[in-house]
């Protein structure tokens, strides 16, 4: 689908490589672009609304909810996102992780037996459920860090701390469970701390693609998707281009260049824009749902709903499955990724992940596709902003 160009306030046009509905802010197209034949101005979600009508519709379809249930879920997720750092401070050293419980509609906070009754009561008074577990978040993070120091064979897909299971979960490709190198790695991983082993249908891969039609940005013969606008440019995936590489837009015109890029170890980059291009905190709706403004970057908890936009498969939703996961791509391990149940395909790399109106991260890679399903990881946007000293462009 060819990207539409719409007037927004006094800007001539907007460039979107994201998918349907509201996700990350994207840079504007070259000056002189005109509005489409419809002349439709972008539909913007009011600040007082929990989400655009299109986002609510997408969540209803993805999770089988009524409109009221979708609104209630988004409001509950926003409350859980705001509560999580408060609960962490209250629990102190006894904190063992937290997640959004969609059935209960509230945050669950895990604590060890070290947590006092006063602290537990205070967390409940803040609106969260409390679960007592064996291992603290600090202990689990330390175990994961020790596993990060190991050399993982290709059959090992990823590993992350799972607060719901109170363990480090190591995921292995299903057809590699019996591989001697994989078994040796699992033995070493179990020695690092509490570990359980899970299987995936396939090993993860990045979602870059060769040059094809659609609404991409290009670097050389690689097509990727823009993530979120920052002042001076946009953020995207590091595997899409190296520092200094030039970037062209959907129309072939020069946009700017990669100013910083890291892959593997990380999977983030930022591209400066110029030559008549500029940035706005908007993602267009691809003609299917209203446009969404980006209003911040508060990190959604595990269990929260999340949606992704990209230049290949447009808009898909799912849930946050894990944070701070190490993913073992064929090019090398990438750390501190967030795992989701959202699908993606080649060309979606770098695209926006958003929860409500809060920017979450840029698409890194995954397994599967949007026909049969799969899982996708993203690099958290706040880490990218902090690494390069960037400021997210918000409304």
What is the structure about, briefly put?
The protein is α+β, with helices and mostly antiparallel strands and 395 residues long. It is built from six helices and 25 strands.
Q: Which CATH architecture of the largest domain?
A: Beta Barrel
Uncertain runs are 1-46, 210-214
The proportion of residues forming helix, as a percent range, comes to: 10-25%
Task: Give the C-level CATH assignment of the largest domain.
Answer: Mainly Beta
- What structural class is derived from the secondary structure elements? alpha+beta
- Please summarize the sheet with the most strands: 6 strands, antiparallel, barrel
Question: β content, as a range?
Answer: 35-45%
What is the average per-residue confidence, as pLDDT, rounded to a whole number? 84
- Spatial order of the strands forming the largest sheet: 20-21-22-25-24-23
The number of helical elements comes to 6
Distance between the termini: 27 Å
Output the radius of gyration: 21 Å
Shape: globular
Number of domains: 2
CATH level 3 topology of the largest domain: Thrombin, subunit H
DSSP strand count: 25
Structure description:
The chain contains six helices and 25 strands. Strands 20-21-22-25-24-23 form a six-stranded antiparallel barrel. The protein is globular. The chain has helices at 53-63, 67-91, 117-125, 137-148, 180-192, 381-388; strands spanning 26-28, 95-101, 106-112, 129-133, 156-162, 167-173, 195-200, 205-206, 209-210, 217-219, 222-224, 228-230, 233-236, 246-248, 254-262, 268-273, 278-280, 282-283, 292-293, 305-310, 314-329, 332-340, 352-355, 358-369, 373-380. β6 (167-173), α5 and β7 (195-200) form a beta-alpha-beta unit. The two termini are 27 Å apart. α1 packs across α2 and α2 packs antiparallel against α3. It folds into two domains: 1-82 and 136-395, Beta Barrel (Thrombin, subunit H); 83-133. With 395 residues, it is an alpha+beta fold. The model is unreliable at 1-46 and 210-214 (pLDDT under 50).
């Amino acid at each position: 689908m060819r990207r539409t160009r719409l007037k927004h306030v006094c800007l001539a046009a907007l460039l979107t490589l994201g998918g349907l509905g509201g996700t990350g802010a994207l840079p504007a197209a070259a000056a002189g672009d005109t509005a489409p034949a419809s002349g439709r101005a972008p539909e913007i979600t009011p600040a007082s609304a929990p989400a655009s009508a299109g986002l609510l519709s997408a969540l209803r379809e993805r999770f089988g909810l009524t409109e009221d249930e979708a609104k209630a879920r988004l409001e509950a997720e926003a409350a859980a996102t705001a509560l999580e750092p408060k609960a962490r401070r209250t629990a102190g050293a006894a904190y063992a992780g937290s997640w959004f419980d969609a059935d209960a509609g509230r945050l669950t906070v895990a604590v060890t037996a070290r947590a006092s009754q006063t602290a537990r009561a205070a967390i409940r008074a803040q609106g969260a459920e409390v679960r007592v577990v064996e291992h603290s978040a600090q202990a689990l993070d330390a175990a994961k860090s020790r596993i990060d120091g190991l050399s993982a064979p290709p059959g090992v897909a990823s590993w992350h701390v799972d607060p719901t299971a109170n363990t480090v979960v190591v995921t292995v490709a299903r057809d590699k469970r019996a591989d001697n190198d994989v078994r040796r790695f699992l033995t070493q991983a179990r020695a690092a701390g509490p570990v359980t082993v899970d299987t995936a249908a396939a090993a993860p891969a990045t979602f870059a693609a060769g040059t094809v039609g659609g609404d991409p940005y290009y670097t050389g013969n690689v097509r990727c998707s823009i993530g979120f606008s920052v002042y001076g440019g946009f953020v995207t995936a590091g595997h899409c281009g190296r520092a200094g590489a030039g970037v062209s837009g959907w129309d072939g015109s020069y946009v700017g260049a990669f100013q910083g890029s890291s892959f593997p170890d990380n999977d983030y980059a930022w591209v400066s824009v110029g030559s008549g291009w500029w940035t706005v905190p908007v993602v267009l709706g691809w003609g299917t749902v209203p446009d969404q403004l980006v209003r911040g970057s508060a990190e959604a908890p595990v269990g929260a709903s999340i949606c992704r936009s990209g230049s290949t498969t447009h808009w898909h939703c799912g849930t946050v499955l894990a944070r701070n996961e190490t993913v073992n791509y064929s090019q090398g391990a990438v750390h501190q990724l967030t795992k989701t149940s959202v699908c993606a395909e080649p060309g979606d790399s770098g695209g926006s992940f958003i929860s409500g109106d809060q920017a979450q991260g840029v698409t890194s890679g995954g397994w599967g596709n949007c026909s049969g399903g799969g899982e996708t990881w993203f690099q958290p946007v706040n880490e990218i902003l902090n690494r390069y000293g960037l400021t997210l462009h918000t409304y």
